[in-house]
Amino acid sequence: MTRATADETPATAPRARRGPYRRLPVEQRREQLIAVALELFSRHAPEEVSLDEVAAAAGASRPLVYRYFPGGKQQLYEAALRTAASELTRRFVEPSEGTPTERLAHALDRYLSFVREHAAGYGALLRGGSAVETQRTTAMVDEVRRAAFTNIVEHLGVEDPGPRLGLLIRSWVAVVEATALTWLDEGDVGSVESLRDWLVDEFVAMFAVTALHDAQSARVLRRLLTHYDGAGPGAKLIEGLGGLLLPEE
Fold this sequence. Notes:
Tetracycline Repressor, domain 2, elongated
C-alpha cells in the first residue's frame, strides 16, 4: 500500500482514551509520534510502555504507528532515544563567556533540568539492563558522553588532552551521571542548585588533585586561574585550596 502525503486514521475508535484525530503531514506525524513516545518513556521504563499507549496518546491507531515504525516499539524507542540524546548533547554547548566554572555551572543546570524532565527514561537508560537496550542505544549514550568530554576540552582550551587529563574529565562525567541517578532514586540529596554547586566543586577538586600528578593538568589549571576573578561557582573551594592552586610567579 502506497503511503499518502498525510496519514489517515481508521474511522473506528478502538480505545476510549484516544485523543482527537488530526490529519497531519507525514513528517509532522512521525515527529509527533516520537514526541509522544519520548514523553511516555520519560515517565515510565521502556518495558512498561506499549504501542497501544503511544497510539492512544497520539490520537492514532496501532497500525498507523507500525506504518511509521515497522520495527515496532524497539524502533520507536530508538528514535525517541536519538531525539533525547540530541537534545541532551545540545545542552552541553555553552558560549565561551564567563569563567570556566560559570560555563560548567550553566551546562549542569541544563543537564539536570533534562534529567528532571525525563526522569524514568534517563534512569532506565543509564542503569542498563533494559529489555529494549541494544548496541545502538548504548552507542547513543556513549555519544552523549563524548559530547560532554569534547565540550569540556574545548572550554579548557586544550587541543590534545593527555591520558591523565582525559581520565579526569571522563571520571567527572561519570560522577555527574551517578549523582543524577542518586538524585532520582533517593530524592533527598539536596536541591538542583546545591547539586550543581557540589558538582562544580567536585570538578575543581579533582582537577587540583590531578594537577599534583600530571604536568599538563597543572599547566592548564594555572592558565585558567590566571584570569580567575574570585567569584562565581567554585569560588569558595578555590579560595580554600589557597597556594595549591595559585598560578606560579
